[in-house]
Amino acid sequence: MSAEAPLLAVENLRTEFYTDKETVRAVDDVNFRIERGETLGIVGESGSGKSVTARSIMGLVESPGNVLPESSIRLDGEELTEKSESEYRGIRGSEVTMVFQDPLTSLNPVYTVGNQLKETLRLHRDLDGQTLTDTAIGLLEDVGIPDAARRISEYPHEFSGGMQQRAVIALALACDPELLICDEPTTALDVTIQAQILELLAEIQVERDIGIMFITHDMGVIAEVADRVAVMYAGEIVESAPVRSLYSDPAHPYTNGLLDSIPGNQPGGRELTTIEGEVPIPNGAATHCRFAPRCPKAFEECYELAPEPLPTTAGKDDHTAACLLFPEDMKREDAVDEHRAANTEGTDE
Ligand code: SF4
């Protein structure tokens, strides 16, 4: 475990699912890092590979799915892809935990919230007696549940939707994880409760200095929570940038399409735009830009060459786009050549 290692480093992540008819590359050569105290927002439509990326990190990809051997997922410098299932079980829930969209998938309806918290604390932190109860109450207080000493004896159905999600976050924090993966945690909540949960996550992050991977299809939510953003499309990260840079200077036509489809985001009262068509199923190595059939800027080479993530302008390494129009300070044919060269390098490795 080295001091300089990022909290999470994902490299060449490929996750495939096998069916009778085809092999689906749900995640295709995904690379990113998350530092301690940083929130990486992962955004994209349904079917873009966001949740499969999260499940791959959690070791929760089940047959007929498979994380391919060249993939690397290092948590605090430790390679997770080489862990056995029992080793992974120890990591899940203690070093990395996940909050899902529907709190009722994480809470057991037949046990009180307190019982579920205490069970987690007993298993992972070896607490018992009054310390166990006090720690469970403290966790509920930390996530803003009022009258926690009383509510600890209530069942999940006695909590409102927002309180249920707070209880799930308390469960996720019970073992003091280093990385919290939130998969659309506010999608099922109304707007005011959503804002409260986002605020809570921001407070927790500052207090505990944890890394957060926040998955959503909502560009508005990403603007609130993320330090960096990775935009996913058809299994690939098509743009990656610090959050301010992504909103002030979006590069990839898909990102522009997502931003234009946020209600109220159209300059001069322009009509809300939509991205026509659907995310394709990536069934094999990319041979061209997977966004081309939906892209308003597509040109001939887009159907012949798979773009690589390159800086949007030369030297701007923290803002990359997998689009043949970039780097934008190059002539188009030179930019295409850069992608062709990067493509060949990738094949040679
Ligand atoms: S590579 Fe071509 S088709 Fe793909 S996003 Fe860029 S311009 Fe559009």
Widest β-sheet, arrangement of strands: 7-8-9-3-10-11-13-12
What is bound: which ligands? iron/sulfur cluster
- The radius of gyration is 21 Å
Which H/E pattern describes the elements?
A: EEEHEEEHEHHHHEHEHEEHHEEH
Give the percentage of residues in beta strands. 15-25%
Helix content: 25-40%
DSSP strand tally: 13
Measured between the Cα atoms of the first and last residue, the distance is 26 Å
Helices, by number, come to: 11
Largest sheet: 8 strands, mixed
Structural class: alpha/beta
Question: Mean pLDDT, rounded to whole units?
Answer: 91
- The backbone outline, from C-alpha atoms, is globular
Keywords: ATP-binding, Cell membrane, Ion transport, Membrane, Nucleotide-binding, Translocase, Transport
Protein name: Nickel import system ATP-binding protein NikD
EC number: 7.2.2.11
Catalytic activity: Ni(2+)(out) + ATP + H2O = Ni(2+)(in) + ADP + phosphate + H(+)
Describe this structure in words.
It is found in: Cell membrane. It is a peripheral membrane protein. This protein has 349 residues and is of the alpha/beta class. The protein has a domain at 105-176. It has 11 helices and 13 strands. The protein has an 8-stranded mixed beta sheet with strand order 7-8-9-3-10-11-13-12, sandwiched between helices. Strands 1, 2, 4, 5 and 6 form a 5-stranded antiparallel beta sheet that branches. β12 (310-311) and β13 form a beta hairpin. α3 packs across α4 and α4 crosses α6 (161-173). The longest helix has 18 residues, at 191-208. The model has no long low-confidence stretch (mean pLDDT 91). Bound molecules: iron/sulfur cluster.
